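Why predict the complex rather than its parts? Because the way molecules touch one another can change local conformation, and only a joint prediction can capture that. The input here totals 229 residues.
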Amino acid sequence: RKEVEQDPGPFNVPEGATVAFNCTYSNSASQSFFWYRQDCRKEPKLLMSVYSSGNEDGRFTAQLNRASQYISLLIRDSKLSDSATYLCVVNILPYGGSQGNLIFGKGTKLSVKP
Amino acid sequence: NAGVTQTPKFRVLKTGQSMTLLCAQDMNHEYMYWYRQDPGMGLRLIHYSVGEGTTAKGEVPDGYNVSRLKKQNFLLGLESAAPSQTSVYFCASSYTRTSGKYEQYFGPGTRLTVT
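Output of the joint prediction:
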């Protein structure tokens, strides 16, 4: 089983749609969870950190289910500017001997159309 | 506050040439990382450092060396470049003792082509 697994997409949605991304992780000892977005030919940028069961930031909601080892990201009222690749990121202990090390999923591509 | 910066932004090397990529951060982060990103492969960790003077291997360290002589800088070296090292290289940093959090912040990347 891959350590962090995401649906690669692409997800093609109209403006204003609600879209959900799912992610599963393999190591039950993981403690830190993040969603990053990456625009084409740019660096990954932190979108949200998920330190408890979930959190919300405007149109974005992240949820964590530790029992199922599952993380989700919900985007409501999607905008053209939301078009990007969304990376699910988890720290895997004792990966690499440092709890700061993160494992990145390969990402889910989102394309929002007018 | 520039965050994480990388130099150079682009480079073309011939097989067998050497080069050093420089990463600098001004966030007082303890940890620094070098990744490579290839199409369909996602981000893969090359080397990392949990403090000044310490480095460790990541998932794909072969063909690379690193040094962290100063807390704010992390250098990635290619001693003898190979076409398989054509990639986009990202540096990242994270963690301060005061925050206790592990979010990584990335530099803009270096696009390296080895011919």
